[in-house]
Amino acid sequence: MTTDQHHDESELPPAGNPADASNKDVPPAIAAFVESFYKISDTPDVHEQYADDYYIDDESRLSFQIGPMQPTNKRDGIVAWRQKGWEGVTRRKHVVNGVFISPKWENEIMLDGTVEMDKNGSTLRFNWAGRMVFDQKSLDDGSPKIETYKVWLPHTEVTAFGLIPTDHPVGRLVAGPTLVGHRAFRSFARRTRCAEPGPFPGECVAAKANATHLFNERIKRRGQFRLHSSFEESSAFAIRASRPDQLCEAIIVAKMSLIALEEAFNIPSLAEQSAYQARLFVADGNGQAHADRLVDIHGERLAKMDQHGVAHTILSLTAPGIQDFDEPKAAAAAAKEVNDWVHQQVQQNPKRFSAFASLSMHNPKDASDELRRCVKELGFVGALVNDNQRLPNDEAAWYDQPEWDSFWTTVTELDVPFYLHPIAPKGEIHRRIYKDRAALIGPVLSFANNVSAHLLGMIVNGVFDRHPKLKIIVGHLGEHIPFDLWRINHWLEDVHKPRGAVSMQKTIRDYFNENIWVTTSGHFSTLTLKYVQDEIGIDRILFSIDYPYEKFEDACNWFKTLDGKFSAEDLAKISHENSQKLFPHLRS
């Protein structure tokens, strides 16, 4: 069998439910080969043995390709690649997470794994996906040799590590915990065309492990493809695209389904400000590691997005940000500096990043003007403000007052969301409440107390009635409000309204149904998520992480555990569909 051989759809396995599918057991000869192959792959100075012992001699059938390198069918080419691949490398360790036999061709396997290596004093760890086709005769004899070996590598990591040229048009790979692929998908690649290039151009796509149902449903609605019974329920997939610069939108959605909305950054000139804030509640004491992560956009942050299947991040200025400036002109200048800086960062990779505007909230006009500039000229997708703006003489601005109506009119005219984010207390509030209770500053208590008071103030003071199209986001699964929703509603509706004590025209539940969204940022509790779903509905919940205050691993690994506890449709809504409705630019 040659690597270019195609199979008609009539040869493919019948369509089926992925939940009913299973891979065949890996034959002992192949399992032993894979173990031995990656052991020698991680052994330096055995380049000749690697080529002689594991590959066929017939150059007419041999094909070897790692990442974007030109494929070779020469033994000497394999040896040369091995030698180059070990330059500067002192240690390399492959881990194979999955080996999957083709459902139709017993001599073909797909592999999913990770590799960690030390090179020139640095350590890199990334995912990879591989395809092996064995010479059939050697396989029958119990001593398999490779006829075709191809490996797909993630562009970001290997480029940064100097393993491939920075300008090489290689595709991006995000492998899930397991990977399964077979020739059945080639028929899909041949028959599907995309109207627009996908955001992750490349020859191979690997999907998140929990995306199979979503992928199946999307394709079913489009009427383009039947999911085949060899698909693992808990596995991802690989597709060899017919055009290396275009991929189907449905595959992209299934491949990286998470969109994160509360992800902090900082600019270098404000580093000390954020370090001070971090020292109040970040565990490493001096906050320096935290501050370093805030100013990094395209390095560790993007690598973690790739590793954990986060397709897109909306960046926002970390607290305290502009709200810590009590002088209006300084605040306005800082907001413009921040917005211009993050705009440049987004422009470097607009498929993966967008931004919320930072605003000086000293007065409605300045805030409106800067938001309009950011949305109209810079392409920002909304605003994130760190709660009350500090004013001179230890005062604070509250945006639930009538003088802010002109600003809320601007927000609704621009049709963008406004994210109300917490800030650590300062001044008199800090002295009176938190000075002797420092452990309560931040996520433990103060964040939710302050933001919930501000949001409830907007509700009871009629902001949403005067601006019915206003869209507000709060983090941390609602800043405690959903858990008090019954009691709040009971007192507002049954006690205060009869006395004429509030001006709100609807119930608090109405405002959550029409104007307010919550994110999962920093609140990775399954029981809590179920409660919030019951109280405000699945359509109002958006996935987020709260990086770098929280870890990608904690947020994304927790989200994977929700599979089976929530329906696939509900998980798709939380992971990305609700965000795509709120932010139309994320639909492409």
TrEMBL record:
One of its GO terms (molecular function) is hydrolase activity. Keywords: Decarboxylase, Lyase. GO terms for cellular component: cytosol. Residues 1-25 are annotated as: Disordered. Residues 1-10 have a biased composition (Basic and acidic residues). Residues 289-584 form the Amidohydrolase-related domain. GO terms for biological process: secondary metabolic process. Belongs to the metallo-dependent hydrolases superfamily. PANTHER family: 2-AMINO-3-CARBOXYLMUCONATE-6-SEMIALDEHYDE DECARBOXYLASE, AMIDOHYDROLASE-RELATED DOMAIN-CONTAINING PROTEIN-RELATED. This is 2-amino-3-carboxymuconate-6-semialdehyde decarboxylase. It comes from Pseudozyma hubeiensis (strain SY62).
